[in-house]
Amino acid sequence: MDHDGLTSLADAIESDATSDPEVVAQILHVLREIQADVPKGEGLDETVLTSSDAALGLVCSVLPGWEIRMQGNAVSGGGNWTCSLRQGSGRDDDEVIGIGKAQSPAKSVVAALLMVAARRKRGYV
Q: Minimal CA–CA distance to 80: which of 4, 2, 16?
């Protein structure tokens, strides 16, 4: 999938369009493609959008050593979460930084991962 398609999927997560089975299927397809390069890739299913552990585990397998920052407000019925992924906090010139926003921590992590993939499609490392 190209940059615009990946960005569109991240936007779908941020606008909470993940109740649409087609959108979820597209997200999982792309995540499986991203994960395909990982030698020990485990099965990937919809829990990556509902379980923070599953989403963080995916990031750890795809982007080992990257810094994960989460910020949010836990409120009943949804929240306001932001996740940023970057190669490390010791540098302020990372070419690729993924930022995702969503109503749950897991979805914000997945949106951020999709943004990292989108930036890589544009040639950033």
A: 16
Q: Provide the token pair at 94.
A: 């990372």
pLDDT tens digits along 16-36? 888 889 999 999 999 998 887
C-alpha span between 125 and 114 (Å, rounded): 14
Give the dihedral sign, CA 106/6/11/29.
negative
Burial code (b: 16+ CB inside 10 Å, e: under 16) for 29-52 equals: ebbeebbeeeeeeeebeeebbeeb
Look up residue 108 and give its amino acid: S
Confidence of residue 12 (pLDDT cuts 50, 70, 90): very high
pTM exceeds 0.70 for this model:
yes
Q: Give the separation between CA 111 and CA 12, rounded to whole angstroms.
A: 9
